[in-house]
């Protein structure tokens, strides 16, 4: 069902527009930017480029939609959930077209895009069920008072999503925001704006009132900054790099001290003990780093292997990587598509060269694939030490670093020796080891005898410079709620 010729849909003199107040409009400046197919570097389509003036219009629409007498604010919570569920059904109905757009724009294999869309549908449906289940508590306060809390939506929220999981990250952001009753100004990544704009059209079809959902494609230093510093945005949610997360936090503080939630980078350890089946370990570790071409914030990008099985593990890891089919994202046999763009491609190749220069041994891959698109062979390094650049910096590409260790205490210290703390995994048949690792590792998610077990029901987020706040699960709702405490003096009416 993948359409290798999906680009013909866009080989016309047309432009994708900005979505504001339930209408597609040109940018105020008239500027556009191009989105590129990373498999062949061909231009897909021109996209209207939002900047500060367009963000202002979107915020005004969202602000109006959040007025106390608006259709959105007067809507029953259950009706809000029904709208969300209808949107999820429309996404599911259009999943083939959306998956084609996602793969065309991002480069991930078509089957991976389909999986992402199924997860996005599940996310919206999960939060749709929460819409009429958000409530406060009664409190037995001291004194002659009847006290309770009321949960209220934060208001207008700015959301900035990355290019590695475009439609899934949209669902992660929209789900809790809409369930709580907020209104949205979303900036998709400039590399991958197409599915967000298509889902915006579906939100209008679903029946969302004017101004509730707005999508402003543009660049980080212009549209993104305008969102972060806008005086009428009450909260900003960002997924992306730690460096940009710091800038957003700074702008939020300097403007109106808006609430900020950040899901940032990682250099996550996966620790493998020698009591675990080495074949199974190699497969889990392989999937942990090579999923989505390694373009995954919580990828198991530091593979620690106990010395007793190290050599055998390296051999198996290299074999698995060497067998992966690299190719066009619409080829049914493709397992590894292109990286998202030239910048990412150059960065990953530079990191691979750094590993070679610092003495790591290439066991598989280690180079680009041809010159047609942004393809890199799945790469495995052995003999990696903690001080190497590839062991300390986030690569965000298909590069596995295999590091030797001896003892539990040693590996916990080494695994924690990083500015990041997004995720961690441990593979062992010893429950005591697993529990000690879980207790002492500094990470927002810890996976035992598995990896990347991200589920909509479970909160997700990081320690240290991997971010703050949580997405998914019931915890994800709290990022979009204000708590109002009400106390009534008894016998006073």
Write a short abstract of this structure.
One of its GO terms (molecular function) is oxidoreductase activity, acting on the aldehyde or oxo group of donors, NAD or NADP as acceptor. Pfam families: Aldedh. This protein is an alpha/beta fold and 493 residues long.
How would you explain this protein's 3D organization?
The protein has 493 residues and is an alpha/beta fold. It has 2 domains: 265 residues, 3-Layer(aba) Sandwich (Aldehyde Dehydrogenase, Chain A, domain 1); 180 residues, Aldehyde Dehydrogenase, Chain A, domain 2 (3-Layer(aba) Sandwich), CATH 3.40.309.10. The chain contains 16 helices and 21 strands. A 7-stranded mixed β-sheet has the order 15-16-17-14-13-18-19, sandwiched between helices. Strands 10-9-8-11-12-20 form a 6-stranded mixed β-sheet, sandwiched between helices. A 3-stranded mixed β-sheet has the order 1-5-4, with helices on one face. It holds the Pfam family Aldedh.
List the SSEs and their pairings.
Layout (H helix, E strand, L loop, with lengths): L14 E2 L1 E3 L2 E3 L6 E6 L4 E7 L3 H14 L5 H4 L2 H17 L1 H12 L3 H19 L9 E2 L5 E9 L2 E5 L5 H15 L2 E5 L6 H13 L6 E3 L4 H9 L6 E5 L2 H13 L4 E5 L5 E4 L5 H13 L11 E5 L3 H13 L19 H16 L3 E4 L14 E4 L6 H4 L6 E7 L2 H9 L6 E5 L3 H10 L4 E4 L18 E2 L6 H4 L2 E9 L4
Parallel strand pairs: 1-5, 8-9, 8-11, 9-10, 11-12, 13-14, 13-18, 14-17, 16-17, 18-19
Antiparallel strand pairs: 2-3, 4-5, 6-7, 7-21, 12-20, 15-16
GO molecular function, one term: oxidoreductase activity, acting on the aldehyde or oxo group of donors, NAD or NADP as acceptor
Family: Belongs to the aldehyde dehydrogenase family.
Keywords: Oxidoreductase
């Amino acid at each position: 069902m993948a359409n290798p010729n999906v680009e013909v849909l866009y080989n016309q003199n047309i432009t994708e527009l900005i979505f504001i107040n339930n209408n597609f409009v040109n940018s105020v400046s008239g500027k556009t930017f191009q989105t590129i197919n990373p498999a062949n570097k061909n231009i897909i389509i021109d996209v209207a480029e939002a900047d500060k003036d367009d963000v202002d219009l979107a915020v005004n629409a969202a602000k109006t939609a959040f007025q106390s007498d608006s259709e959105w604010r007067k809507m029953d919570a259950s009706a809000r959930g029904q709208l969300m569920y209808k949107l999820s059904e429309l996404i599911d109905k259009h999943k083939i077209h959306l998956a084609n757009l996602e793969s065309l724009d991002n480069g991930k294999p078509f089957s991976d895009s389909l999986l992402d869309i199924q997860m996005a549908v599940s996310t919206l449906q999960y939060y749709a069920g929460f819409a009429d289940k958000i409530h406060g508590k009664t409190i037995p306060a001291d004194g002659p008072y009847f006290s309770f809390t009321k949960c209220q939506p934060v208001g207008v929220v700015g959301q900035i999503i990355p290019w590695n999981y475009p439609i899934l990250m949209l669902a992660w952001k929209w789900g809790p925001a809409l369930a709580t009753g907020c209104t949205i100004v979303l900036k998709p990544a400039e590399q991958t704006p197409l599915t967000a704009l298509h889902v915006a059209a579906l939100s209008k079809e679903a029946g969302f009132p004017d101004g509730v959902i707005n999508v402003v494609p543009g660049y980080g230093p212009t549209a993104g900054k305008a969102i972060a510093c806008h005086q009428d945005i009450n909260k900003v949610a960002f997924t992306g790099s730690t460096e940009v997360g710091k800038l957003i936090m700074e702008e939020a503080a300097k403007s109106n001290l808006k609430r900020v939630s950040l899901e940032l980078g990682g250099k996550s350890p996966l620790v493998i003990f020698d009591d675990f089946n080495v074949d199974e370990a190699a497969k889990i570790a392989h999937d942990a780093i090579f999923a989505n071409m390694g373009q995954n914030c919580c990828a198991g990008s530091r593979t620690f292997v106990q010395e007793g099985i190290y050599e055998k593990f390296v051999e198996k890891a290299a074999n698995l990587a060497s067998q992966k089919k690299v190719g066009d994202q619409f080829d049914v046999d493709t397992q590894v598509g292109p990286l998202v763009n030239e910048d990412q491609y150059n960065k990953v190749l530079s990191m691979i060269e750094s590993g070679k220069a610092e003495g790591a041994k290439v066991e598989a891959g280690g180079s680009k694939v041809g010159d047609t698109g942004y393809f890199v062979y799945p790469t495995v390094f052995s003999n990696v030490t903690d001080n190497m650049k590839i062991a300390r910096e986030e690569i965000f590409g298909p590069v596995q670093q295999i590091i030797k260790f001896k003892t539990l205490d040693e590996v916990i210290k080494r695994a924690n020796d990083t500015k990041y703390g997004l995720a961690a995994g441990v593979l062992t048949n010893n429950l005591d080891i697993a529990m000690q690792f879980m207790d002492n590792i500094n990470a927002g998610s810890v996976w035992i005898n598995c990896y990347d077990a991200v589920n909509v029901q479970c909160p997700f987020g990081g320690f240290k410079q991997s971010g703050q706040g949580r997405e998914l699960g019931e915890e994800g709702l709290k990022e979009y709620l204000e708590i109002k405490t009400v106390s009534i003096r008894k016998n006073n009416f």
